[in-house]
Amino acid sequence: MNTKKVALMLLELANLMELRGDNPFKVNAYRRAARALENSRVSLEVLRERPEELAGVGKGTAAAIREILETGELEQLKQLKEELPAGLPSLLEIPGLGPKSIHALYRELKITNLDELEEAVKEGRIRNLAGFGEKKEKNMLEGIRNYRERPRHHLLVHALPIAEKILKRLQELPEVSRAETAGSLRRMKETVKDIDLVVATEAPSAVAKVLTEMPEVTKVVASGEKKVSLLIDLGLEIQVDVRLVAPSQFISTLHHFTGSKEHNVRIRQRAKEFGWKVSEYGICDPAKGEDFAFREEKELYEKLQLPYVAPEIREDRGEFERTADELPRLIRLEDYRGDLHMHTRWSDGTGSIKEMALAAQKRGYRYIAVTDHSQSLRVAGGLTAEDLKRQREEIEAVNEEMKDFTVLAGVEMDILPDGRLDFSDEVLKELDLVIASIHSSFQQDEETITRRVLNAMENPYVHIIAHPTGRLINRRGPYALHLDRVFQKAKETGTILELNSHPYRLDLNDIYLKKGKEEYGLTFSINTDAHAPEGFDFINMGVATARRGWLEPADVINTWPLDQLLERLNGNHS
DNA sequence: GCCGTTTTCGGCCCGACTGTTTTCAGTCG
Description:
Blueprint: H1 3-20, H2 24-39, H3 44-49, H4 59-71, H5 75-83, H6 99-109, H7 114-122, H8 134-149, E1 154-155, H9 156-172, E2 176-182, H10 183-186, E3 191-192, E4 194-201, H11 204-212, E5 217-223, E6 227-234, E7 236-245, H12 250-258, H13 261-273, E8 277-279, E9 282-285, E10 290-292, H14 297-303, E11 338-339, H15 353-362, E12 367-373, H16 385-401, E13 406-414, H17 425-428, E14 433-437, H18 446-458, E15 464-465, H19 483-493, E16 496-500, H20 510-520, E17 524-527, H21 539-548, H22 562-571
Parallel strand pairs: 4-7, 11-12, 12-13, 13-14, 14-15, 15-16, 16-17
Antiparallel strand pairs: 1-3, 2-4, 5-6, 6-7, 8-9, 9-10
The structure holds one DNA strand.
């Protein structure tokens, strides 16, 4: 049992209570308690003894927390699970269906899952229910079909160019004075459900008309004076929500729709302490009838006597509990000096060492490490010890040609299924940089696969563990790795953990980065794993994820000057 | 269920849009 599991159980309880139609404020109380638990760093002991010390945890939720810690279960949750059919929560995925409607469908028509809902719609049974009609039936049917066909979340890297394209069109309109992206896209979450845009204009109807008449629009979901919601097909079909506001309200609206929802709740609560009200149109003082507008988001935070919070960390994950000095100076692209994980034609890359070096130098980098695959990874043309020696000769030749730039000789070495490494220490000690990673036997049980990684970390020549959890977003889950043990070992051995920037990987993710930094004091390396010069472009994904993980330049070895980097790498060997 | 230098009761973040209604509930962000 750990605090995360306790939080998850409280959250599940809240979700089921909501479906049953319980008091929404009570439901919210459990959600807040779950969130408080997730964000707190109290030990299990403190949690067991004095859970009430956490803000948002009172008598009721404290009793629930104690029960979970003592018995591993929660009677209330167990009963609710027996009372409510298992398929009910899945109905929440259908747009337009919320807890109230789902409860009514269950109560009146005994609908418990998507199949039964679809059947009832087709038989026209739903339109007879109070508050339902033919139009809602039609929307439900469409929702069910979409749910089954469309991926729930789009990769950030796929949504970004679409957002940019629409944004550009909007910015070119004479009626538009300013337009920006908002929502999870602006917060740079690894996946996004939709694209949020905020537009400043004095002529909302004209802009709305342009939007709804774009050739790529497949469906107008909603269209009003303040807001337009569309389904757009620009290579992939995605929902685009556009808010239209007067220029003076732009900043407040941008902030509001950047979210996150949880961050906004805290903002509003903060405003209430001053007796003010926050909405997407600004902050107002009802007592004096005053409205406050802002030219920059910084001013909005200042008004509430809060330090400015970058969009990427607006998640209510502790940003409200820090002073300006305590908030991180988040890493930026300009801080980045060199990529330390890439492949060349020597294995499965498409560029030569020199081409990769020149491309990196052009980006303003000062160094790179060439890290081709090792011998066991046959499909990728892994290198033998002998190949590595010959490759080093080429690397040295490139180094002699280039000015103010250094290519390090490295390898991405496989951690074999039985836990052995693909090269002996004699081979490894000749290299400048050794990355170890898993490319086989992903299905091993937790103990086996964790042992594999720990074993690699214990080797003094291994500097970095690449893409530590192995997940591929929307494709493949993480290995059954026990990450706390990996973090603990990294702390003991000084092993650096990678944040792999490939948009399908982003591994470690934001949550783990923050945890590794705050709880274990770890150091990380952000790399693109490029297989061609263009692969370097994905560094913006990695830096964005690092920002979401509260990382500062000092936490990331790729921002260090070369001599500091080499000192750290050599330190491992002593 | 939680919380309190306006409160131990009565609030709890706020507004837009849709579809159902004939003044509003539910959903969404």
